[in-house]
Amino acid sequence: xxxxxxxxxxxxxxxxxxxxxxxxxxxxxxxxxxxxxxxxxxxxxxxxxxxxxxxxxxxxxxxxxxxxxxxxxxxxxxxxxxxxxxxxxxxxxxxxxxxxxxxxxxxxxxxxxxxxxxxxxxxxxxxxxxxxxxxxxxxxxxxxxxxxxxxxxxxxxxxxxxxxxxxxxxxxxxxxxxxxxxxxxxxxxxxxxxxxxxxxxxxxxxxxxxxxxxxxxxxxxxxxxxxxxxxxxxxxxxxxxxxxxxxxxxxxxxxxxxxxxxxxxxxxxxxxxxxxxxxxxxxxxxxxxxxxxxxxxxxxxx
Length: 302
Description:
Layout: E1 6-11, E2 13-14, E3 25-26, H1 28-41, E4 56-63, H2 71-79, E5 83-87, H3 99-109, E6 116-121, E7 124-129, H4 133-147, H5 152-166, H6 181-188, E8 193-197, H7 210-228, E9 234-236, H8 247-255, E10 260-262, E11 281-282, H9 288-301
Parallel strand pairs: 1-4, 1-11, 2-3, 4-5, 5-8, 9-10
Antiparallel strand pairs: 6-7
Helix pairs in contact: 1-2, 3-4, 3-5, 7-8
């Protein structure tokens, strides 16, 4: 019989969005319900304590959206729950929308007279039908998965091409900005909240060569330490699935001085788990009943 483990939860945003095609956000009222259930039923512990010998739950956030220091922080503080925030440091203070939000806006939110897009993606031409809402949703999914492994600069170039073909000019939405340096520093100064690195530009690490990976992994740690004035030894892999990083990545994370690193592979973290491959479980925009049912299943497994 295995020892009790820690259920590590993964959130990205706490916000009420018009569209959320990737399920990144939990509405504030539902997050408050989830936190109340966790406060009442669970031993919520800092991520660093996942090896403790009794069953626990840890809360983490990825990316660094500004709503992390808005509704999310307010609700966590009221519930007195600790959490770890993994931040893409190169986007601190950036009001430009990250590429997947810009893609959502272009394909699902913009009105245009165009019926098709003809664009080159990773060296291949794509002819894309956007004549109906269903076609647009299909196009959005197809483009997202093809853009994801590309380098950030190449993705932005492709999106520039799409925007030009659609004949639209988008403006960045306030609700989609990243937190500022000052907001991150304020967050880090509060008891119970830890900060970890999530690279500099949020690339698909497995597609980068070793030197490029090192710059993202070690460079983000160094930059965060300069911002915070303290040691940073927690990391999470962008995208986080098994295909998003490899053994070279993990060794570079170790070499950079991180003691823990999180994936998005589901499961329970046990005392004998690899600390550089900690499993996490994505939480959806679930009401109290559904969240409690999901929690029961995981806590039984833990």
